[in-house]
Amino acid sequence: MRIGYLDIAVGISGDMTLGALVDAGVELAELRERLRGLPVTDWEMSAEKVSKAGIQATKVTVTATASDRASHHHAHHQHASYTELRDVIAGANLPPDVVNSSLQVLGRVAQAEANVHGMSLDEVHFHELAGIDTLIDIVGSVIGLQMLGIEKLYCSVLPVSHGFVDTAHGRLPVPPPAVAELLKGYPTVPMDINEETVTPTGAVLATTLCEQVGTFPPMTVEQVGYGAGSKDFPGRPNVLRLWVGQLAGGDESLIIDEVVAVEANIDDMNPELHPYVVAQVFAAGALDVWLTPIQMKKGRPAVKISALATPTDAEVVANAILRESTTFGVRLSRSQRRCLKRETVKVTTRFGELSVKVGYLDGQVASIAPEYEDCLKVAEKHGVPMKAVYSAALAAADDLWQQQPDD
Fold first, then answer.
1. Would you say residue 78 has pLDDT above 80?
2. Which domains does the chain have, with CATH numbers?
3. Phi, psi (degrees; rounded to nearest 5) at 258
4. Could you check whether the bond before residue 175 is cis, i.e. omega within 30 degrees of 0?
5. Which stretches of 250-371 are DSSP H helices?
6. Cα–Cα 20 to 30 A to 40, which of 23, 156, 262, 294?
7. Has residue 80 got a pLDDT over 90?
8. What does the DSSP assignment read for 75-125?
9. What is the mean pLDDT of residues 347-372?
10. What's the mean per-residue pLDDT of the chain?
């Protein structure tokens, strides 16, 4: 599987994304031709090599021509509405997957603007994100990824700078409110730059098109492209780096994602509360919760409560531990996990129909496990040991070892 990784060292914007794609191998002439499927005319796209703090990168510029600037096409107003831009993309002569992905990107940034300003989507008008450059940045990025054959896109943790930026709404703090809205639920890292480095277009492309934000995925690197930003920062190359390659090992059956481990050491809680606390942490959205006996300072016996959560749910899970247990603090750490592609199938046993989970690795069955709740209900219904039901389910699933995954 061919994958891509956006390495956001300083920032990301729409033109930087296009520049990285072109630098990584997208033919500019072909990209232009495909973008002609949009029902807008009189625009130009150019690319040039520039140096950013000693690194050669590609700078892509999208401009509206003189006749276009004088036209009255609804997509070219300086303050284009969401519905106008949406209709332009929806009416494009482009593949359905390109249209759908582009509409998803545009819709997310429009929803962020609506949330920030307390309005409906139909009332949203773009200012800094207006007009032809917005359409080309969004649709061009989607097309460029397709041209490079990238099936899954990942990106690094997004940097957050500081300062102020002048907008149509007045002077706003950096990152602008729409960017802050788009970054909700995604990992960020502070960066001491007194400028805007992540634009709304860049933020929405990263958080919408990337399946994972965080660590570098296992990859056999084939190409690296550098997209140049417009600004220069002393001692820092303002470039967006795109890594392109094959998922390491070629194993498409593995599901690769990020989880957050939330932990706390507790030595002063009544053990009778343990099951309740675990249940509440599960209810908060934890993927798994467990207790480990440990020994703390001065030989005190204690337990460590551990939970796994998605990056989006990590704060809620952490708050559940803080609220329900006696701890005064929790630890959070990010990890990358690899899971088998799986499906649930029904098997017929002498006790009736039971569900089993089947996991696949490299296209072959790697693990089979009966569903605990099914086995428990059947054991209680028939008054037999649960191990007998479990063994019957495994025996009935024996033929599944030759089964191929359903794609």
1. no
2. 2-250 (no CATH), 255-329 (3.30.70.1380), 339-402 (3.10.20.300)
3. -110, 145
4. yes
5. 274-283, 314-324
6. 23
7. no
8. GGSTT-BHHHHHHHHHT-SS-HHHHHHHHHHHHHHHHHHHHHHT--GGG-B
9. 91
10. 89
